[in-house]
């Protein structure tokens, strides 16, 4: 199902590619590392590898189970990405001899505990957009700043659903009991695909509703579930427009499952269409909007290229931001440069 957006530059057709030069990601850790403790923190850079691939390489080199290596989040494969890993300090000497063509240890420090999933603030992206003139580049920067101010619909990007999005149908069949999956990791992945697809469909309807009302902002409904900056969920009786405008709270959508906080009143009428109350896995809420920040644009006339760098909160997708700017949906095939084409 198509992802809909509130702001775009639909008359501008730019290109971007997910590769090591044109798509760069730097993880922003939760806070400062102590510089002492029983865990070694590695700042690593990887090229054209998934996070799982990289962890498997370190696990094999250190002769330890992959579960012994801590990490905060998964990073794109087709990119140059920097992130943090943790291992016990007893492997420090061995890691000084580590060498791999696609992985570089940039620095090390120590900390009191291992890195856990979610231990990051967000990610900093630097992406090259091609086939643009200076006027189009200016329009893109203007729309990007408008999105950052009013909020980006927090869709799950195409990466969530596998290369051809076939995992969505597979997930539905598994949940219905028509497909048996034995592998626990695959089963967990398909459950997340199932929840994510429902969330995206719900968010699309809410964006269309906002557009139909003539608003260029996300329209709130009575019964919406909001999350505050400290992570508390609430359903106020009155629509909290002022708090929303001040970015003190954000509306959320449902990732269906047990024990999840559900919407009420008008918001519930839409939400229940994208719910599965019989799903046994734990449900949760996801912010409907996120706010890209620290946007910086640099146009290179000689290459008809605009470099756009920005920071995104954890769990959100840079490609969704680019989709919103372009007013179109991308797939993995759209952003892969043909190997035969000229390298930039």
UniProtKB/TrEMBL annotation:
One of its GO terms (molecular function) is RNA binding. One of its GO terms (biological process) is tRNA pseudouridine synthesis. GO terms for cellular component: cytosol. Gene3D superfamilies: TruD, catalytic domain, TruD, insertion domain. InterPro entries: PsdUridine_synth_cat_dom_sf, PsdUridine_synth_TruD, PsdUridine_synth_TruD_CS, PsdUridine_synth_TruD_insert, TruD_catalytic, TruD_insert_sf, TruD_pseudoU_synthase. Residues 151-307 form the TRUD domain. Its EC number is 5.4.99.27. PROSITE patterns: TRUD (PS50984), UPF0024 (PS01268). It catalyses: uridine(13) in tRNA = pseudouridine(13) in tRNA. The keyword tRNA processing applies. Belongs to the pseudouridine synthase TruD family. Responsible for synthesis of pseudouridine from uracil-13 in transfer RNAs. PANTHER family: TRNA PSEUDOURIDINE SYNTHASE D. This is tRNA pseudouridine synthase D. It comes from Sulfurimonas crateris.
């Amino acid at each position: 199902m198509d992802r809909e957006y509130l702001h775009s530059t639909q008359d501008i057709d730019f290109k971007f590619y997910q590769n090591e030069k044109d798509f760069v990601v730097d993880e922003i850790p939760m806070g400062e590392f102590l510089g002492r403790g029983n865990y070694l923190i590695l700042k690593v850079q990887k090229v054209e590898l998934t996070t799982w691939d990289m962890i498997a390489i370190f696990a094999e080199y250190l002769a330890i189970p992959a579960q012994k290596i801590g990490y905060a989040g998964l990073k794109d494969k087709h990119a140059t990405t920097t992130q943090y890993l943790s291992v016990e300090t007893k492997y420090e000497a061995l890691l000084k001899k580590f060498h791999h063509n696609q992985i570089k240890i940039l620095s090390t420090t120590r900390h009191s505990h291992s890195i856990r999933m979610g231990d990051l603030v967000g990610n900093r992206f630097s992406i090259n957009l091609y086939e643009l003139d200076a006027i189009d580049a200016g329009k893109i920067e203007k729309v990007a700043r408008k999105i950052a101010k009013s909020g980006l619909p927090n869709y799950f990007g195409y990466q969530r659903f596998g290369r051809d999005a076939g995992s969505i149908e597979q997930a539905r069949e598994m949940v219905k009991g028509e497909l048996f999956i034995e592998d626990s990791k695959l089963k967990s992945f398909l459950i997340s695909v199932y929840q994510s697809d429902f969330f995206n469909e719900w968010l699309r309807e809410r964006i269309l509703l906002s557009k139909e009302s003539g608003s260029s902002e996300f329209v709130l409904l009575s019964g919406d579930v909001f999350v505050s900056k400290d992570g508390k969920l609430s359903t106020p009786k009155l629509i909290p427009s002022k708090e929303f405008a001040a970015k003190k709270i954000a509306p959320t959508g449902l990732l269906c499952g047990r024990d999840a906080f559900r919407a009420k009143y008008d918001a519930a009428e839409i939400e229940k269409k994208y719910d599965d109350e019989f799903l046994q896995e734990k449900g949760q809420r996801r912010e409907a909007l996120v706010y890209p920040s620290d946007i910086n644009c640099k146009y290179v006339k000689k290459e008809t290229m605009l470099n756009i760098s920005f920071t995104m909160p954890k769990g959100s997708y840079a490609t969704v931001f680019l989709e919103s700017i372009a007013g179109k949906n991308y797939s993995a095939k759209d952003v892969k440069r043909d190997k035969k084409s000229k390298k930039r």
